Amino acid sequence: MRVEIWSDIACPWCYVGKARFEKGLAAFAHRDDVEVVHRSFELDPGRAKGDTALVVDMLAEKYGRTREEARSMEEGVASNARSEGLGYRIEGRDHGSTFDIHRLLHLAKARGRQDELLNLAYRANFAEERSVFDPETLVALAVEAGLDEAEARAVLADADAYADDVRADEREAAELGATGVPFFVLDRRYGVSGGQPAEVFTQALEQAWQGRVITEIGQSGGDAAACGPDGCEVPHAGPHAGAHA
Amino acid sequence: MRVEIWSDIACPWCYVGKARFEKGLAAFAHRDDVEVVHRSFELDPGRAKGDTALVVDMLAEKYGRTREEARSMEEGVASNARSEGLGYRIEGRDHGSTFDIHRLLHLAKARGRQDELLNLAYRANFAEERSVFDPETLVALAVEAGLDEAEARAVLADADAYADDVRADEREAAELGATGVPFFVLDRRYGVSGGQPAEVFTQALEQAWQGRVITEIGQSGGDAAACGPDGCEVPHAGPHAGAHA
Question: Which residues form the DSBA-like thioredoxin domain (chains A, B) (predicted)?
Answer without folding.
Answer: 3-205
